[in-house]
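Example record used in the benchmark description.
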Amino acid sequence: MKKRFLLAPGPTPVPENVLLSMAQPMIHHRTPQFSAIFAEAKEDLKYIFQTKQDVLILAASGTGAMEGSITNLFSPGDEVLVVNGGKFGERWGKISEAYGLKAHWLNVEWGKAVHPSEVKKALDANPKIKGVLMQASETSTTVAHPVKEIAAFTKNRQDCLLIVDGITSVGVFPTPMDEWGIDVLVSGSQKAFMLPPGLAFAALSDKAWKFMETAKCQRFYFDFKKERKNLKDNTTAYTPAASLVIGLRDALKMLKEEGLENVFARHNRLARATRAAVKAMGLKLLAPDSPSDATTGAYVPEGVDGGKFVKYLRDDMGITMAGGQDHLKGKIIRIAHLGYVDTFDIIVAISSIEMALRKFGHKVEFGKGVAAAQEILMEGYK
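Model output (structure tokens):
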């Protein structure tokens, strides 16, 4: 027998009660019964997004909400600034160019956060830019970008939107849409929302909704105006992922019961414990200066094949984590600590890494990483 643990940045573990709610017999999506469930979910999403705006619920992965943010708000030829500090920043640029937008690429070293002054410099030098596209948490590099500081440059520019991929920040660490002045905030179900993949979320500011009046990019399925109209009737424009919406209602209840500040504190505690453990094991952090509380990245020791290391953890030890992408492939390991994750998931993660390092011939003192994590994890117990 081998018990398995899911500690990758997404999909993330799903609570048992949410799994059971989704396993109930299917109900029709155009009924008062389903609309009542949908109504609860749509209101609780506002709490998690920290906004008074509508939060659209789409049957898609998070990329669907990203694509919809481009097609609903811009026209071919419009200029946007792409903060490209990893695979998902790169995705913003690729989507933009696919729809005929002119992307100004602000390339950031992987493992580093963009400096707000660089964004301001780019905006000042290119006054035609109509949108800044960025991540709050760049999952591929485990970096948290300074959204609040960048929002200070965009919120008073009526001709420029700040569009943020919050797929691994919403429900993980503070990304308050209304308070900071974020114009579009998107997320997905398989991260902090503790659900399987299949739902995408998008919330738009009043300024963003006004942009829609002149946007000319082609769109059909991801039509935000149509979705907003149907949202008012507690339904979706097209067939929803009904079981996921039922699960969403229950997952959001769990988050509300914990309380958003406690949710943020838990993620921060798990992240700090993981980073302390990584350093105690003698590993180098991928993002030491601006780490995300969603995922910790660490370089594997010299001479250790990161790809084989992650495979061994998954296939032999039953612990699924993530490796690196592009030029970081085979060089790093990414340990997720978002969503339905708590103290002893981190203990499992760190102890398995210690054991795997020994297996791969790296000298490591058993328990050193675990002990470093425990010192911080104890903060959660009074």
